[in-house]
Amino acid sequence: MGYFEILIVFFSLVFFCLFFQNKNGLPTNWPLVGMFPEILKNVDRIHLYLVEILEKSDLTFIFEGPWFTKMQLLVTIDPANIHHVMSKNFQNYPKGSKFNERFDVLGDGIFNADFVVWQYHRKMAQFFLGHPKFNNFLVKKTLKKAENGLIPVLDHVSTLGIQVNLQDLFARFTFDAGCTIMMDHDPNTLSVDFPVNPSSKALDDIEEVIFHRHVVPTCVWKFQRWLNVGKENKYKKAWKTLDSFIYKCITAKREDIINNNQKEDNEVCTDLLTLYIKDDENLKTPIGYQGDKFLRDTVLTNFIAGRDAISITLSWFFYILSKYPEVASKIKKELDNIVIDWTNVKEMNSKLVYLHGALCETMRLYPPIAFEAKTSIASDILPSGHQVNPNMLIVFNLYAMGRMKSIWGDDCNEFKPERWITKQGNIKHEPSYKYFVFNAGPRTCLGRDMAFIQMKIVAATIIQNYVIEAVQEQRVVPNVSIFLHMNNGFKVRVFRRPS
Ligand code: HEM
Q1: Domain contains 58
Q2: Mutate to test the pocket of ligand 1, among 363, 439, 445, 483 (most ligand atoms within 8 A of CB)
Q3: Which range is the signal sequence, renumbered to this chain (predicted)?
């Protein structure tokens, strides 16, 4: 090729780029590859990138994938759109078959279900998760775990003066507490020797692969699954490990019930599995009687629902307190001035106002579940004026939502527990389509009260007994996943308060 031809190609390319380049700071929709290069360029800082993009696009933008994939996502954090999708036109926005495929390990559990199957699950879950016997059990076991698991480990690291990764510690706490509450089985992963537990590791692997399934084209991960290689092979093994663990617990529980061998006083205090098994004849889902498979799906779903969200919130909560020691002092003062009775869940969730505000504020800035998605059935127009096509994926980014001036005001990047307190000193409630952390509409989270009481028990146990000091040389940043884990955890030193 001569100089002249090279010059022509060069200037054509420059013209081409200038012609297509978006001038408003939004991602450019390049021929063939769509907006994909822009996303790839920013993948390591995807949360911050979405804050920028959604701010510039007035809270909603349409992401165009490579042309051959026909991928089009509508990303929105506009509260009016969320209210519309989650409540007003709920029937038009199921989770959809793509969600089902990616989360197939959850079987037919509530997270994966739509329409009549979901309605059935929802009714059951509402009844059992709100059951007084289960709530008593939850509080009793969480307190026991704090006393026999959390305190000994914190005492151990403070006596030796060694660092501990708080994120790992909380993951162990919620894994043990979750197994105990769901199935009355404590695997004791929260102990001074920090054992590796195959089922806990399997859950981590499953979550990693599910995220992978969201970012690579469907045909790629399905091909890997067919070949049983790479991440899909890891997924299959993890699935097997979890199944074997949960089915063993179900069998043991059934035997205990038949032999009347139950550990707790069943009249006042019972784990979730026992409640479900005792209602066995009612476990006829709209897709037929599923026996232990139904119990397995239910236990696993509740497990995934609660375990990470609670441990992640606690990790960010203590990270923020390390930056705002005055908030930790105010929480301690509140705890010192209140008669604590954890068994009274309602009272504890309404009385510890400042602690409640600090937890809400943590989840506003660091929502433990960072992304949510729905799929449209029919075409629709959103309140923002955006056109929704049939079978379109609607994605919500909760991280960006908590950091929008137009939603939370000019001080949206500041940590202010006071934001959640009324002039009368009560807890201030925000509409769920604005504070979307626990979902909104008919599919609102069913574990909200449980989660708050567990987080408050852990926060109170630590703040009343210890001082937490962040290790200086570390960069604490969120990772890129569905759950907002910290990339390298949060390393701290622990000091016992003088008694
Ligand atoms: C800080 C803690 C928690 C947060 C932030 C949270 C958040 C959420 C969110 C965002 C959803 C919607 C997920 C989706 O539809 O894709 C959800 C649903 C759900 N959560 Fe939670 N959750 C928490 C703790 C819990 C706990 C402890 C439980 C009980 C074991 C629980 C039970 C459920 C259930 C059963 C659903 C499904 C509701 C439905 O689809 O109808 N959650 N939660």
Answers
A1: no
A2: 445
A3: 1-25
